[in-house]
Amino acid sequence: MGLTVSSVLQLSAEPRYLRSVAPDILPSLLNVFQPRAATRTMKATDLEQRILKQSLLCTVMIAGLGIAVGIVSGSLAIIFDGMFSALDAAMCSLSLLVTRLLQQESSRRFQHGFWHIEPLVLVFNGSLLAVLCFYAFVNAVKGLLDGGHELEFGWGVFYAVVVAAFCLVMFLRERRVNRVIDSELIGLDIKSWLMSACISSALLLAFSIAWLLERIGQGHLTPYIDPGVLALLTLVLIPMPIGTVIGAVKEVLLITPPDLEHELRELMQQLTADYGFVKHSHYATRVGRGLFVEVHIVLPEAMEHAGVRQLDQIRDRISRAIGESGPDRWLTVAFTRDPRWL
């Protein structure tokens, strides 16, 4: 079994490259990081929490309405919509808790912050939504095999119109806000509102078709409308949470995004051509909203006595090329003359 040890000791003439941690921590390694844009991030996080709180309240209302109307009308599809909203409300509560954790400073136990919790929540949320869709699909197929069931279309149409319009408004509103703050948690909530709007719109279409069938003397087909539309909806919706789960699992496993790897490789090739570096290596990944980048450089003999300020200029160039400066980016740049430290 192999053992890899990474040791980094870095010097800088710029205090802004230091990342602060909890005051009771004496770091064993001195890392080079970019300064925090605390005020701007705090405003974005406050807005994120406010949006999630409003979404939670609205989701609870939709869930209660859906379950009640589903029981009155006898529609399994409407009950599924209500249960979907109830589960979404629980997940929204968990997302709200995560946003509060992300506001906290590093602690003795969590010195890298709480970014890793965000993809874990996305995996949990997406998995539950996928399981709910699969369970509803199984029930829908069973309903079709059992010959369907009668339901009250008047209540169904009323529910579908109200909820579809409401969910569409919430979807458009949150999408507009998220273009500014770019939150993965709100992004998942946006998908949930879109899924709810699609479900309600499909219910409206299905109930309208059922009402038309009764008017043209084909009422014997209406019992199959409810389980049929439920089966179709679940098949269409299952890929959405599964896609979220796959993306979040990649972050949990610290898989480097291909575009980030390509960007760093081109950057280091350009710097090597400009400064004549002997060798270099880089490591990067995304975890939730956190971006972690390490760059290790073996300096040529001509730069053996390079001043700290000259090295800071190289750091600045790397920092500007990577972008995304702020509290969510951890950038480490180390210089050495000995290749064994890579």
Summarize the entry for a quick read.
With 342 residues, the chain is mainly alpha-helical. The chain has nine helices and three strands, in the order ααααααααββαβ.
Describe this structure in words.
This protein has 342 residues and is mainly α. It folds into 2 domains: 15-31 and 256-341, Cation efflux protein, cytoplasmic domain (Alpha-Beta Plaits); 38-252, Up-down Bundle (Alpha-lytic protease prodomain-like), CATH 1.20.1510. It has 9 helices and 3 strands; from the N terminus they run ααααααααββαβ. It has helices at residues 38-73, 76-103, 117-145, 153-181, 184-215, 225-237, 239-252, 258-275, 308-322, and strands at 279-287, 290-298, 329-336. The chain has a 3-stranded mixed β-sheet, covered by helices on one side. Strand 2 (290-298), helix 9 (308-322) and strand 3 (329-336) form a beta-alpha-beta unit. Residues 1-9 and 20-42 have low confidence and may be disordered. Keywords: Membrane, Transmembrane, Transmembrane helix, Transport. Its main location: membrane.
CATH architectural group of the largest domain: Up-down Bundle
- What structural class do helix, strand and pairing data support? mainly alpha
Helix content: 55-70%
The domain count comes to 2
Question: What fraction of the residues are assigned to beta strands by DSSP?
Answer: 5-15%
Largest sheet: 3 strands, mixed
Give the integer mean of the pLDDT values. Answer: 77
Distance between the termini: 20 Å
Number-wise, the strands total: 3
Oligomer: single chain
For the largest beta sheet, what order do the strands appear in spatially?
Answer: 1-2-3
In the CATH scheme, the class of the largest domain would be: Mainly Alpha
> How would you sum up the global shape?
elongated
